[in-house]
Amino acid sequence: MPEPLRNDVRVLGELLGRVLRESGGDELLADVEALRELAIAAHDDPASDALERAEQLVAGLSIQRAEQVARAFTCYFHLANTAEEYHRVRVLAEREASALAHTLVSDDSLPAAVAQLAQEVGEDEARRRVSELEFRPVFTAHPTEARRRAVSRCIRRIAELVADRDQRSRGGLSLAENERRLLAEIDTLWRTAPLRQAKPTVLDEVRTVIGVFESTLAETLPNVYRRLDDWILGDRAGRTAPSVRAFAHPGSWIGGDRDGNPNVTAEVTREAALAMSESVLTALEASARRVARALTLDADGTPPSPELSALWHRQRSRAEKDAARVAAATPNEPHQRVLLMVVERIAATRTRNADLAYSGPDELEADLRTIQDSLVRAGAPRAAYGDVQRLLWQVETFGFHLAEIEVRQHSQVHEGALADLAEHGVDGPLAERTVEVLDTFRALGAVQRRFGERAARRYIVSFTQSAEHLAAVYRLAEYAFEGTDELPVIDAIPLFETFADLEASVDILEESLALPAVQKRLAENGRRIEVMLGYSDSSKDVGPVSATLALDTAQARIAQWAERHDLQLTLFHGRGGALGRGGGPANRALLAQPPGSVDGRFKLTEQGEVIFARYGDPAIAARHIEQVVAATLLAGTPSIEQRNAAATERFAALARRLDEASRERFHGLVRAEGFPQWFAEVTPLEEVGLLPIGSRPARRGLSVSSLDDLRAIPWVFSWSQARINLAGWFGLGTALEGVGDLEELRAAYAQWPLFATMIDNVEMSLAKTDSRIAARYLALGDRDDLAAMVLEEMELTTRWVLAITESDAILSRRRILGRAVQLRSPYVDALSLLQLRALRGLRTGDAPEAADELRRLLLLSVNGVAAGLQNTG
Fold first, then answer.
1. What is the pLDDT of residues 713-771, one digit of tens each?
2. Sheet of 458-462, strand order
3. How far is residue 136 CA from its own chain's centroid?
4. Is residue 271 in a domain?
5. Which of 74, 259, 757, 811 to pair with 486, CA 20 to 30 A apart?
6. Is 313 known to be catalytic?
7. How far is the C-alpha of 612 from the C-alpha of 10, rounded, in Å?
């Protein structure tokens, strides 16, 4: 471990120890230390009896003391994660300070990616591709972020103090003051209840994402644009028009995704849009005011253009009093006074002052360009292309809506609504769900009218299984706006989730081209089309290996279909945070995509704890965005496309064998009689559903007797809690054993990016498993056959992954990731033992009077294991 990180972890751990002693006395600290030492001993020497002794220690604790111990380990994880995150920021800053252009790696640096692109396709074509680049992160509220917002805020304050400690002078009162404040914050973290008392509302989740925008994205995205533009323009940077336009366009399912979530109503959608608009307009107002205050250029040296003067006269005619006040404060500074009036108009837009408000972001953008052009013509390009350009980038990125709200609904809900309407008509006695469906379209129209078309026009159809499921969206919109001309702009987007749906995707898309509504939209939008692919349900359907291969095949076929029809395709990747839900490094996954499937456009869901991991810190957020955008550009280079095409052809037979064998093995487990009930017994599935960590229910409606309607999130989350992570690897070992040709598999690992990414992701997933802990969970169910199948497959998969990667141990070749897992594993083991104690008590029912206390202990341990494992859901 690097010494600075080791020191931070040591300091925070010692301070936590002081807090525990102050709060619970020496006895509490002694119990925590005893369990910690035994867990470490068990981890370092699996052959010892340390794990059994740790289990005995846990069994001897009172439930109240077990709760305290669980909370102590959870606090430790939060502190260790904070130290590690800050170390990443520290390393990034050091690397940035010392990096030279020729040392940058193309898939790790946006400037280097552009340089490689230019080498392969020429400068002009590279510039064109950069100008058409699109990155669309879509934030979702899937309930995998187990910690409370109050805890998150406390962690953020601790992170600031860790950074402050690193940067301030060593010694004296400054260090003592830092330590005092750290102790106070760690004490607050310890005393803050880790579990919410009630589920968050949808609007609570909206506010969480707004917080990410306000703390990082508002400033980070313009910084990324600026860095790339400075590199492309070189010495001309700041003196000439930027070559980079705003290429990031955030979206949000929060407030729009009603598939299985009855808490998302039409009214909630309107309120979500209003809250996001309020936030972005407040930020734009503050940003514009800041730029205006610095724009003190005198008219004698920087005269206004005729267009700027005309703009001032229009502004003055709208608000005489405001204009007079601004003019008095800015004598002979025409650019500043015009921009100050722009500030007044942004404020009026936020407060809905119709006389002064902007009609939309395009009108604001036009005013800013008038100011910019005037500055350039007056000989002040640095003022024009400096902070004014930064403000323009913010407007282009966020508009007046912050993030586009995307509506999602299940195709069966639409079918039911249409049947209801066909029987009763719009004015008839409609079912409540049908009324809500129609109200959703009306809300979408209202959001567009107030905040612009970009604010809400995408409508995703879950479980799209025919072109009629897309046609239903347009028919329902016509019902909702019958007899009016207020029909909103809608792009119905198919979501292909199951294995069968992925197989049928091209046929469904081909049929959809005959729909008049689709033809109309293609004519209006330049033949742009979007298709969403679901990683979670396909993996739950056929297992992780077959799902990975099916998604790759579907993407290739859809890309070829789009090319045949001259369509500009955007594939929307519904990737979860966990490896079992399509998680893992997004940039590496991008570089493994089929030819033509990226083409400079990448859209993905950002979910749960991944949002904070990737976007919680400005430096890490900038790094993540750069890596993903760099990979988006590189995926379309001839060298990458040719490599991926050749590998797909070369290893086609291997892919078929892996698919068939892994799927058969996966189905042999999940389709075994009694498997759903056994799964609920050996994992905390039922208890996870009790956690108030999201507004969405854990199931679409059916009981645990069926997996068909179980959401992929609790499926993955429960397996990770049991330290099995089955959703990320099960079936691969059998498939590799069936191939048996180690030389061929090593060749595939070296030459086939999709296979290499899959193997590496499985290795990460296996790193967070523990066969000894897993066996204890599996023993909770009365099915030795299923337990043996899981443990045998885990051992087989581990053996083959190590052989293919030529490694001695899991993650031995990946120093940073291996260090992170090694740092946490013994402490996760301790929490797992506490969770097992609670689960055993609940499963046996021997102490019904203690059931509530056991359930609380279990939920506390779930929270802690999630913090320790990270990307769990």
1. 778 888 989 999 999 999 999 999 999 999 999 999 999 999 999 999 999 999 989 99
2. 404-405, 251-252, 134-140, 601-607, 568-574, 528-534, 491-496, 458-462, 407-410
3. 11
4. no
5. 259
6. no
7. 24
Residues 533 and 562 in one domain: yes
CB-based contacts of 520: which residues, under 8 Å, 6+ apart?
A: none
Find the domain containing 335 and state its range.
278-398
Q: E-strand spans in 424-486?
A: 458-462
Q: What is the token pair recorded at 342?
A: 């722009």
Could you tell me if residue 458 is inside a domain?
yes
Catalytic residue among 43, 87, 142, 414: 142
- H or E, element range at 601: strand 601-607
Regarding whether 157 and 25 lie in a shared domain, the answer is yes
pLDDT of residue 685: 85
State whether 419 and 386 are in the same domain: no
In a domain, 259, yes or no: no
Long-range CB pairs of 375-379, under 8 A, 24+ apart, other chains included = 375/297, 375/302, 375/335, 377/305, 378/297, 378/301, 378/302, 378/303, 378/304, 378/305, 379/302
Are 379 and 457 part of one and the same domain?
no
Q: What is the pLDDT of residues 669-689, one digit of tens each?
A: 999 999 999 999 999 988 776
Q: Report the amino acid identity of residue 427.
A: D
List, for residues 121-147, the tens digit of each pLDDT value: 999 999 999 999 999 999 987 544 456
What whole-number percentage of the chain has pLDDT above 70? 93
Asked whether residue 232 is domain-assigned, the answer is no
Task: Note whether 662 and 545 are within 8 A (CB).
Answer: yes
Q: What is the pLDDT of residue 690?
A: 66
**Residue 512, token pair as written in the block:** 């959809």
Q: Annotated catalytic residue: which of 540, 573, 624, 768?
A: 540
Residues with Cβ within 8 Å of residue 400, at least 6 apart in sequence: 277, 280, 281, 349, 358, 360, 361, 364, 451, 452, 455
Cβ(444)–Cβ(255) below 8 Å: no
Pair (194, 67) in one structural domain:
yes
d(CA 69, CA 57): 11
Q: What interhelical angle do 815-844 and 771-778 show, nearest 10?
A: 20
Are 485 and 629 part of one and the same domain? yes
Whether the CB-CB separation of 595 and 644 falls below 8 Å is answered with yes
Taking alpha carbons only, the member of 633, 637, 495, 519 closest to residue 567 is 519
Q: In what helix (H) or strand (E) does residue 186 lie, and over which residues does it extend?
A: helix 172-191
- For residue 471, the domain's CATH number is 3.20.20
- Residue with the bigger pLDDT between 493 and 197: it is 493
- Name the burial class of residue 185, with classes exposed (0-12), middle (13-18) and buried (19+) by CB atoms within 10 angstroms of its CB: buried
Highest mean predicted confidence (pLDDT) among 260-264, 425-429, 491-495:
491-495
Task: Tell me which amino acid residue 841 is.
Answer: G
DSSP lists the bridge partners of residue 404 as 251
Q: Mean pLDDT of all residues in the chain?
A: 90
pLDDT above 70: residue 246: yes
Query: Which tens digit of pLDDT belongs to each residue from 5-15?
Result: 889 999 999 99
Last residue of a domain, one of 366, 398, 430: 398
In the residue annotation, 540 being an active-site residue is answered as yes
Backbone angles phi, psi at 533, to 5 degrees: -115, 130
Q: How many domains does the chain have?
A: 4
Distances in Å between the Cα of 282 and the Cα atoms of 210, 371, 498 are 12, 21, 42
699 pLDDT tier (thresholds 50, 70, 90): very low
Q: Could you give the C-alpha distances from 194 to 74, 170, 451, 869, in angstroms and in order? A: 9, 33, 37, 17
Cα–Cα distances (Å) from 435 to 253, 266, 430, 476, in that order, read: 21, 10, 6, 11
Do 452 and 595 have their domain in common?
yes
The pLDDT of residue 167 is 75
703 and 717 part of one domain? yes
75-96 per-position pLDDT tens digit: 998 898 899 888 888 888 887 7
- The CATH number for 363's domain is 1.20.1440.90
